[in-house]
Amino acid sequence: MTNKTDPTGDVRLTGIAKTYGDFTAVHPLDLTVPQGSFFALLGASGCGKTTTLRMIAGLEEPSAGTVHLGDQDVTALPPYKRPVNTVFQSYALFPHLDIFENVAFGLRRRGLKSVRKQVEEMLDLVQLGEQARKKPHQLSGGQQQRVAVARALINHPKVLLLDEPLGALDLKLRRQMQLELKRIQTEVGITFIHVTHDQEEAMTMADTVAVMNAGRVEQLGSPTDLYENPGTTFVANFLGTSNFIEAEVDSKSGDDIVLKAGGGKLVLPEARCSAPASTGGKVLVGVRPEKISLTHADDAGEIPEGRNRITGRIADSSFIGVSTQYVVDSPVCPGFEVYAQNIDRDPRLVPGAEVVLHWNPAHTFGLDAAQSVF
Ligand code: ATP
Where is the ABC transporter domain (predicted)? Predict the structure, then answer.
């Protein structure tokens, strides 16, 4: 086990970049991954996350910048001399060796003779102690992936790099393995850097997520922070669904910004606004669909004071068991999405009904209105 607060094991990327001819896959990037954290590089296909991971592994030579592991500059070191190991989506197990020997491989290559205790401990860690004498093809995809993790951890790397390791698994197994990998990481306490395009996966597993877009880190933060306080429309949309209203700054009131939208007013906590908010300026106001309540217009008088509210008409509704998804057309935002839990469902809330959408101002975030809402 390693000390989670030891800064000497931090992974530090300084000005790291990768170009292929005229094409820049990764723009100069500064990033620190604290030792002992579960860190995710999240982004759509082609955004540069695998290239970044491969530069940490030493599998790709950076065009500029340095990679440090603690105090050690490893930029010029070949992969096998770095205290890191990589787990790939393809498992890459040796088909002719049994599970025990697959995991023992790294130890035997170092010339160690008595490997039993270490291999058994590692197999117990990934809960495959009973499968030691099976061959890889006799295991499920999830079990094979756990063998790959055990094999990568056996030499106690300082950092484990995971390149879409769950990409080949079906959804149910993927979810199980997300929790399993998180448990393993917590138990061994080493740094995991995980590449994925799946926002739910990154949010489930990681302490810190770097959202990448077109070769740059667009935002870095904890899953809740990124979800609650996205700094750009890209991040807001990549991590879930968001509604946007273009509003104009009217005034400041204590810690809040008061905005004009259509004929009404909206309140936005200043701390949740990443845009400059001078009077008369434009701000893109965002609110997540599940934060919004929907009240039939006839009952508007029952809505508590102090909530942000806009009016609209239900355009569409889809019952999906636990909740109903509504699309509401409002003068300030066509196609507003609302996810409402089906507790005390109001039977009047059907397409065509006039409604008031309302939410706690604390759940509002403000973005620079110059961005596109894609
Ligand atoms: P994916 O999830 O599809 O693997 P990614 O975010 O991991 O995507 P990278 O594999 O890092 O993306 O690739 C980033 C960009 O660099 C892509 O546009 C890719 O086509 C390009 N690229 C990667 N390797 C090379 C190479 N050897 N030569 C030229 N271009 C490359």
Answer: 11-239
